[in-house]
Amino acid sequence: MRCLVTGGAGFIGSHLTERLLALGHDVTVLDNLSTGQRDNLAAIEGHERLKIMVGSITDQLFLSEAVRDVDAIYHLAAAVGVKLVADDPVLTIETNIFPTEWLLRLAVQRGQRFFLASTSEVYGKNPKEQWTEEDDLHLGPTSRPRWAYGCSKAIDEFLALAYHRKYDLPVVVGRFFNVVGPRQVGNYGMVVPRFVDQALDGGPLHVYDDGSQVRCFAHVREVVDCIIGLVDTPAAAGGIYNIGSDQPVSIRELAEAVIERVDPSIEIDYTPYSVAYGSDFEDVRRRVPDVSHLEQAIGRRPRMTLGEILDDVIRWKRALRNDAKN
Ligand code: UDP
């Protein structure tokens, strides 16, 4: 297959690109290298079945050039990360909405398979213990920039499903929960790389609020397998799928697990949300997916434990630091 990965130099996109190449596919990566990094593709740069196009998905001509000869589009390019989105809501809206519609239109002309990367942010602050794909979206007020991200992705989902209904486009929507692993950077929120860096620097770890907020962390390799599984399963088309781990952990427990692995003498510093993100920030207190829909569709779901994931991230960060020293 010939595949296009928008955002292919990003954290998840670069892992997806590697995997698609390893499976024997041709891959075109489209990335503007804003949050994505060329270094993420270092291991595969020069590969005979890889083409890298540097440019923005907000450029319509560039998009139509990129989709021309492909069979499947993995649309991962977006303004991502709670911090980035809170800092620049205009960029979020422009990057996350119009280009998705253009891409869907282009895909209809060619009947291309389409994976839309969406996010657990669309559930907002739904108070349920575990979220299923048919649950209501509980977004906060438009005066709070955090919700611009989830709302923009919800519009993308509406668009994708509408194109499926109206034109029978084989679209599949994946809602990523917290995805972690090597190459994730901590500049845009992203608690795991931040905690690991803080620990390797000798601490303290900056836990926001009291640390009782809950997340589930999945390894990027397993998430990539789920994306590919969904696109390769014709019966999955037209559906929405939570993609993530369903093992809840509080942020305090996460900090303790990092400390235990790096240096048990490191301390935790509790920082108010207002200091971390500014006064108009709202956090999501609990975010746990029900992944049975995913498992029914493709026969798999992310299963790595938090310990295995942290060991992998710590190993990667240590190697990076060693390389930087030498
Ligand atoms: N968090 C934290 N310290 C940090 C970064 C994040 O305590 O340095 C918390 C944050 O408030 C949230 C959780 O960790 O409750 C996950 O944050 P992240 O930005 O990784 O992703 P989110 O799930 O909020 O999109």
From TrEMBL:
Domain NAD-dependent epimerase/dehydratase: 4-244
Gene Ontology molecular function: dTDP-glucose 4,6-dehydratase activity; NAD+ binding; UDP-glucuronate decarboxylase activity
Cofactor(s) the protein needs: NAD(+)
Protein known as: dTDP-glucose 4,6-dehydratase
Claim: NAD is one of the keywords in the record: yes
InterPro entries on file: Epimerase_deHydtase (IPR001509), NAD(P)-bd_dom_sf (IPR036291), UXS-like (IPR044516)
Signal peptide boundaries: none
